[in-house]
């Protein structure tokens, strides 16, 4: 008698095969930062995200340290994990924290990825507006202009991708960029990855296509080690036929010869830390929800505290060169 496999078993089997065959990048990541206390004696709260293993990355924490005890927590809305530290009275001038990871990142190609069904509850959240990502008004009007009769959701996603690519410019001059404010980006027509993907997500959700925002770090292609100056973000949208479909419009804009590649792919030069916008931390922060979670979020005396120096670096594991993404 033939053995019968469950859908979960088949998914695990496919994932293992994909892991063995996919392009990958193996590296050590050092996520370090220092909180500099200018006004001692007040309560200090520190949160920062924890990278998790999934279908496209295998993550292992090799060491962690902090001047305050670290507690791992999970927020319920998106399932993001984080470390939390607290003291009732910050009496040191500086507090240092470090987490070291061993990471194997896989190339995510929609063309070869097995569709992983999403729950109705998950999809419903990624149809809703966020504080800076509206689904009515101007982005909805722009989306309607891109849609033609008979288009599938995948076709619509491509139309929104092409529109964002054509109308936005990757430009971090001036002020206002980097917040992922769709309305600002629609008017300014420039910004960074958060601005690009906020426009795309607003347009997709306005057409009842679930879309989600993913935060992480980007590693330089062709460089074996170095500092990581800032974060990177990308997006996925969901169709019934294809499941979650990867896009990275800002990378496509910076490497325009790869425009077609980044519609349906996330390359190996990244590591993901969190999903979603308007994040309520665990335990709950005193101030408003966090716009997105990648760099440390700190409160001193119950107020957001920006005096944080980040020092994030990477080094490819010896014996494996950085893998270049195919087109």
Please explain how this structure is put together:
There is one protein chain. The chain has 327 residues and is an alpha+beta fold. The protein has 2 domains: 122 residues, Immunoglobulin-like (Sandwich), CATH 2.60.40; 162 residues, Roll (C8orf32 fold), CATH 3.10.620.30. 22% of the residues lie in helices and 33% in strands. It starts with 6 loop residues before the first helix and ends in an 11-residue tail after the last strand.
Helices, strands, pairings?
Blueprint: H1 7-21, E1 24-36, E2 44-50, E3 57-66, E4 71-74, E5 81-87, E6 94-106, E7 108-109, H2 120-125, H3 138-146, H4 153-167, E8 169-170, H5 182-188, E9 190-191, H6 193-206, E10 211-218, E11 225-228, E12 232-239, E13 243-247, H7 249-254, E14 265-266, E15 270-275, E16 297-300, E17 303-304, E18 308-316
Parallel strand pairs: 8-9
Antiparallel strand pairs: 1-6, 1-18, 2-5, 2-16, 3-6, 4-5, 7-14, 10-12, 10-15, 11-18, 12-13, 16-17
Helix pairs in contact: 3-6, 4-6, 5-6
């Amino acid at each position: 008698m033939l053995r019968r496999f469950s859908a979960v078993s088949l998914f695990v089997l496919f994932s293992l095969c994909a892991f063995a065959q996919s392009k990958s990048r193996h590296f050590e990541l050092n996520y370090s930062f220092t909180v500099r206390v200018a006004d001692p004696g007040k309560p200090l709260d520190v949160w920062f995200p924890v990278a998790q293993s999934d279908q496209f990355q295998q993550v292992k924490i090799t060491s962690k340290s902090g001047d305050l005890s670290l507690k791992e927590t999970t927020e319920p809305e998106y399932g993001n994990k984080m470390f939390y530290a607290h003291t009732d009275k910050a009496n040191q001038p500086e507090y240092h924290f470090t987490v070291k990871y061993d990471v194997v990142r896989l190339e995510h190609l929609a063309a070869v990825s097995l569709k992983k069904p999403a729950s109705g509850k998950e999809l419903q959240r990624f149809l809703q507006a966020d504080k800076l990502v509206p689904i009515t008004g101007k982005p909805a009007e722009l989306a309607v202009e891109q849609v033609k009769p008979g288009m599938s959701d995948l076709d619509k996603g491509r139309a929104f991708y092409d529109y964002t690519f054509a109308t936005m410019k990757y430009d971090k001059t001036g002020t206002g960029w980097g917040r992922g404010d769709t309305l600002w980006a629609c008017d300014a027509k420039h910004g960074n990855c958060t601005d690009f993907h906020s426009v795309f997500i607003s347009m997709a959700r306005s057409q009842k296509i679930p879309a989600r925002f993913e935060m992480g770090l980007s590693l330089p292609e062709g460089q074996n080690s170095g500092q990581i100056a800032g974060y990177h973000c990308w997006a996925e949208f969901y169709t019934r036929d294809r499941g979650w479909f990867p896009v990275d419009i800002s990378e496509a804009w910076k490497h325009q010869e790869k425009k077609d590649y980044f519609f349906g792919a996330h390359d190996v030069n990244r590591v993901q830390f969190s999903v979603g916008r308007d994040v309520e931390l665990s335990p709950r922060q005193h101030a408003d929800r966090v716009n997105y979670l990648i760099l440390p979020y700190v409160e001193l005396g119950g107020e957001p505290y920006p005096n944080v120096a980040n020092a994030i670096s990477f080094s490819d594991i010896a014996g494996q060169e950085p893998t270049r993404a195919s087109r």
